[in-house]
Amino acid sequence: MSQLPTVAITGVGLASPNGSSLAEYRAALLSGKSGVRPWTIPVFGETVAGICDFDPLRHQSKKELRRGTRAGSISVWCAHEALAHAGLSLEARDRSRVGIYIGTTEHGNVETETEVLNLAQYQNDVRYWSHHHNPRTVANNPAGEVTLSLGITGPAYCLGGACAAGNLGLIQGVQMLQLGIVDLAIAGGVSESPRAFGIFASFHAQGALGSHPDPTRVSRPFDRARNGIVVSEGGCLFTLERLEDAQRRGADVLAIVRGYAVNSDASDFVLPDSLGQERCMRMALAHAGLDAGEIDVVNTHATSTPSGDIVECKAVRAVFGDSRRVHVNNTKSFIGHAMGAAGALELAGNLTGFRDGYVHPTIGVEELDPECELNGLVLDAPKSVPDQHHILNMSFGMLGINSAVIVERPAE
Predict the structure, then answer these.
(1) Mean of the pLDDT values across residues 164-180?
(2) pTM of full prediction above 0.90
(3) Is 123 exposed, middle or buried (0-12, 13-18, 19+ CB in 10 A)?
C-alpha cells in the first residue's frame, strides 16, 4: 500500500471570546487577556460566559443572519477568514472538490428554546412556529450554511463528538484529503452553547458551573479552589491541503498534521477515565511515529472541574512524566469551555509557537492543586521555547470520547 499523502494546515479562521483573528487571539494568550465576562441567559438568569465579538455582516447579509443560526454564522465567518488567511480563492477552483467538516457538541438547542419561549406568548399556538426551524436545527446546519455562503458543492457535514468535536472535524478533513475525496478541506469545530439556557441549567444541576467574584477567574484549571466550568461559544476552521499541493502554489505552511487518535472510555455518561485518555495519547504518538520525549507542548483539555482536571493530569503524567522536553498549558483558562470548538481553538492558540517561540501559560492559578502538578506546566506568564517541533492537542467529551491531534513544525 502506498504511503498516504502528508496534510498541511495553511490557514486559520476563528472567532473566540478574546479575539477574532489568529493574530489577535495569540496576542491575548501571550498577554494574559481573558475573554470571560458577565452574561445573562433567558430563564436561567445571571452567569458568566465566553462570548465572541466579530462582525457577522462582513460575510453575511441581515436576511441571512435572520434566517440562519449563531453556529452557522460563526462557521461562515471562520470559513471566509480561513480562506483569506491561507491566500486561497475559490474563483478558479472546482468547488465540488472542496469539503467542509465541522465538529459540533450540540446544535439546535438555541433555536428550539427560542421558539418555545416565543410560542408561549401566543398561547402555544403552533401556527406561530417558525418555518425556518427545521433547516436551523438539522445537525448539518453549520456546514450547510458555509456551502451556501461560499457556493461549495463538495461534501459538507458536521461531526457530533461532544467536546472532542473540534479535533474530529480536523481529523475528518485530513482523512478525506488523504483518500483523494477532496483537494481542499475546511475543517474544525464550532459551538453556540452560551445562547441556550438548558445547557446552563443542566450544568448547574450537575454542580459543574464555576463561580468567582471576578468573571475572568472563574475558569481556573489546576487551581486548588477551582469549582467548575465556564460555558463559551466560538469557532475555528483550518484550511487543509495536501502538502505537495500547498507547496506547488507557494502557500505559507503553518503546520503539518503528523498524527491523531480517537477512542472511547466506555465507562460513564459524564465522568472521564484516566486510562482511556492515556490510551488515546499513546495511540496518537504511535500513529505519528513519535516518542513522548519528542513532544514540546501538550495542550490539556482540563475544564476547571475538581475531579476532571485530576483525572487528566494523571493521564498526562503517565505518558509524559519523565520527559525533560515537554511543556504543558491550558487555553480554557483564557476563554472558558467552547465545547465543540474547544479542540480546534486550543490547537490554533498554540500553532503560532512554532514561529514566535513561546508557549502560552495557564492563567488564574493562585495555588496549584498538588494533584494537578505536572512536569513542564507553564503558569502565569509565557515561556520562551524557541525550538518547538511537535504539539499534542487533547480533547475529551461526554459519553467517554477522547481525541488527540499531533502537529509538526514545517521544514524551513
Answers:
(1) 98
(2) yes
(3) exposed
